[in-house]
Amino acid sequence: MNLDEIRKDREKWLNWKNIKPLRDVIDSLEDVDCAYTLGDVVEINSKDTLDQKKIEDNAKVFMPWRKGPFKVFDTYIDTEWLSYKKYNLLKKYFNLENKTVADVGCNNGYYMFKMLEDKPKKLVGFDPSALYKSQFDFINHYIKSDIEYELLGVEHLEFYEHKFDVIFCLGVLYHRSDPISMLKSLKKSLENDGIVYLDTFMIDGDEPFALCPESSYSKIPNISFVPTIPALKNWCLKAGFKEFEVLETSVTTIEEQRKSDWIEGQSLDDFLDPNDKTKTVEGYDAPKRVYVRLKR
Ligand SMILES: C[S@@+](CC[C@H](N)C(=O)[O-])C[C@H]1O[C@@H](n2cnc3c(N)ncnc32)[C@H](O)[C@@H]1O
Predict the structure, then answer these.
(1) Which of 268, 13, 266, 50 is nearest to 151 (CA)?
(2) What CATH number is attached to the domain comprising 49?
(3) Domain housing 248
(4) Fewer Cβ atoms within 10 Å of its own Cβ: the N or the C terminal residue of the chain?
C-alpha cells in the first residue's frame, strides 16, 4: 500500500465544500505568543490583548466539538464528552516518556495534547476525518506541538513508516466490521515490547459472545460488534496477542457525555430509553466500556 498516494488524495478532502471554510479560518489565524496548561481542560493562555469575540466565532466554525474540553483564551469549548474522565481512568497505567506513540481514532487530538505532559519521543494521530483534523489544526496553531496528524485509518497503520512502542486505540473497535483483522493490524504495528491500550463497548456475560446490533446501538449507526469480555479476550488471542489484561470497566454517564452548546443535535440522554436508563432506545443494555492492555 502506497501511503503517500493516499495522503496526497486525502489532502484534497481539505477542499471539500464543508471543510474549506474551516481551512480558511486556520489560514487566517494570527500568530499569538501563548502558553498552555494540560489539566482536565486543555487551556491556551496569552498575555496579549486579543479579539475574544473573533476567537469564539472562529471556534464555533469547527462545530460539532465532540472530545475535550478546551479553553482557547476566554472561549471555553464545552465539548459533548468530558474526555478527561477516560484519560484519567487510563493515565495511571501508562508513562509515555521517550516513547513513540500512536493514537488511532484520535479525533481532534485531545488525548494527544494531554499526552504531551509525559514528553513522548514522537506522537502520531490517525483519524480519517477532515473535520477532526481541522479542529486539531485550530488548537495546535496555538499549542505549536510537533504532534503529527495523519488523515489515515487503522487499516493503514501496519503500512506506516515505522512501528510504535505504545498504541492507543480507544473507541474504534466496535466500528470495525472485522475486529480480529483490526487487532492483527495493531499487533503488526507494535515494536516487539510494545503495548496497546484499547477500549470498546462491552456487554455483560461469562460466555464468549458478541452482540451484533440490527441497525444501531445507542442511536450510533455503524456499530458492528459489542463483545463480552471473554469474547474480546478470544479476539485478542486470535490476533496473536500473548497478554490480555482488563484494566477497568465503566458505565458511560450523562455527566460524561451530554448535550452542550458546542454540538448540534442529541447526546447520550436521548440515546437511552426514557423509561429505563439502563437500556438504550433499541432495548440493548446501556453503553458500558472495558479498557484493556495488550502485549505481543
Ligand atoms: C467514538 S470516536 C473515539 C474517539 C477517541 N479515541 C475516544 O476514545 O474518545 C471514534 C473515532 O474514530 C475515528 N475513525 C473512524 N474511522 C476510523 C478508522 N478507519 N480508523 C481510525 N479511526 C477511525 C472517528 O473519526 C472518531 O474520531
Answers:
(1) 13
(2) 3.40.50.150
(3) 3-295
(4) N
Report how far residue 118's alpha carbon sits from residue 82's, in angstroms, rounded to the nearest whole number: 21
Of all protein residues, the one whose alpha carbon is nearest to atom 11 of ligand 1 is 105
* Residue in 129, 151, 172 to alter for ligand 1 test, most ligand atoms within 8 A of Cβ: 172
Tell me phi and psi for residue 152, to 5 degrees: -120, 160
Write down the mean pLDDT value for the chain: 96
The tens digit of pLDDT for each residue in 45-103 reads: 999 888 999 999 999 999 999 999 999 999 999 999 999 999 999 999 999 999 999 99
The residue type at 191: E
Task: Give yes or no for residue 114 CB within 6 A of ligand 1.
Answer: no
The answer to pTM > 0.85 is yes
Residue 148: pLDDT band (50, 70, 90) is very high
| Domain count across the chain | 1
